[in-house]
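User: For a benchmark we're assembling, each entry needs the component sequences followed by a predicted structure for the full assembly. Here are entry 17's components. Please fill in the structure.
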Amino acid sequence: MRIYKAKDYKDMSRKAANILSAQIIMKPDCTLGLATGSSPIGIYDQLVEWYKKGDLDFSEVTTVNLDEYKGLPKDNDQSYYYFMHKHLFDRVNINPNKTYLPNGMEMDSKKETQRYTELIQSLGGIDMQLLGIGHNGHIGFNEPGTSFEKDVHCVDLTQDTIEANKRFFASADDVPKQAYTMGIKTIMHAKKIVLIANGIKKAPIIQKAFFGPVTPQVPASILQLHNDVTLIADEEALSCL
Ligand code: GLP
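Assistant: Structure for entry 17:
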């Protein structure tokens, strides 16, 4: 595992964007696994800036997102579909037909998780997966206690996650209670993984995830067993190491 210490959020975003753009330059038709949340917004802004300067070309890139709330339509401004279009897809020359997310409006969980699992397989796997991390160690929406063996599945969000994500909704009651997410197994199959974290609130979980025991109670701890993980975090997020 490589750990890059960034000065602050902007520096973290730039370093991570550099790694993603190197991936796109080295393999223009790569498949990127993308993440949502507040952490990656700076990365997407940086990628857009480089695209506008003519330094990046997304025309052959395929993307698959980690997760999506179940029950939120695409035009809901809290859906991850909306987020990805707003922060990246609508601002670069990516082919919208090559941008994939779970379909939050498919109520048949079995059907949707199978479709998304098969889709990722049909793309030949993920070249580089970007991850954020939840305060409880979740990656994607794999909450503590989730089996490491799971592929794409439907999860009941924990109260912890609902509380953490309610800042984006009118109230905690408006946060969806379920989500579709790539499983730990899907994530571990990615060839390269880049995890970003910033801020003092992430410091205890970064310590546990990367230096504590590997346990389903801390889903991100499984990344210790992946052979190509890069952690990019700011000084605050690394302050418990
Ligand atoms: C959500 C997402 C995760 C993300 C996490 C952390 O729960 N499903 O993919 O990593 O939030 O979000 P933030 O980056 O806002 O701290």
